[in-house]
Design a protein that fits this description.
single chain, alpha/beta, 8-stranded parallel barrel, 40% helix, globular, lyase, 4Fe-4S, EC 4.1.99.19, iron
Length: 367
Amino acid sequence: MSFYHVYQTIRDDDFYPMHDQTSEKDMMTILHKNILTEDDFLRLLSPMAEMYLEQAAQKAHALSLQYFGKTVLLYTPMYLANYCVNRCVYCSFNTQNVIERRQLTYNEIEEEAKAIASTGLKHILILTGECRKTTPVAYIVNAVKRLKKYFDSVGMEIYPLTEEEYKTVINAGVDSLTVYQEVYDETIYDNVHLSGPKKDYKYRLDAPERACRQKIRSVNIGPLLGLNDWRKEIFFTGMHAKYLQKKYPDVDISISLPRIKPHAGTYEARYDVNDQDLVQALMALKLFLPRVGITISTREAPDFRDNLIPLGVVKMSAGVSTEVGGHALEHGSDSQFEISDPRNVNMIKHAILKKGYQPVFKDWMPF
């Protein structure tokens, strides 16, 4: 049994009749409930729910205060390598894109680490392209051991690993994992991943659970919005998070909501996801799963990110570069995608304070 079996039971559901039948009375009932059903979650994603965003926002704000307080954790990504063997139509790292490829040496990793640590950040997320030959697990392990000298928390967003490999990187010091399914619709998934190991839908879908079984501290999942109808993708994401949260109660589960941004390829989002859609998605997730953390990355514009803070955002990236070596090296690489919020760590810190929230640089220490 894995989430794939759950997905198989809901993937062919026709959500639209439920959306069409959602009434104002239904919305008022849902907004006054403490525990929501899956049907309630679906109705929160309906067009009718757009009329109740203000009420949903007030409840999301209250739930976020109840479960997370007035804090926002700051972190930044560090790109170790951008070699990749996959052909994902939406990503600059697509093996057929002509971009400058590079991989950091261990000394360069320490240079990057020193530059990031000087900003006060204690949490980082290391990323690579998906190329086991150039960027093997052994390289990741050695990189993590060096980074642990500078940071209290090292998260990882790399290619899916076997369960034994997750055990190895966790023992080396990795405490959190990010794995985006990109798109939960299995047919669309097959169409946008043209070749490479990432084409294996189920192996990727099961990756978070393999890490959970090895007792990783935190797992972050999410769709890449724009590849499918956002209402369906958010429903599948919420169901995935609920499955993980229920089966692995000791693991912190969080969700990111990235939208497709300009990249080295020519692919453009097939489904529009505007700011209001993103807000509705965030509200629905927060009301359905109050204990799930929400992360908003620098793919979003500064004002929009700031305004989302009171609605349930508990993690934000800051001082971001999506280039390999982008924090300290004179010659980095091409970026993975364009960011929309170029503010440095200090500027993000003050933006959070201006909202009446506390920026947190460290909320985790291994022992």
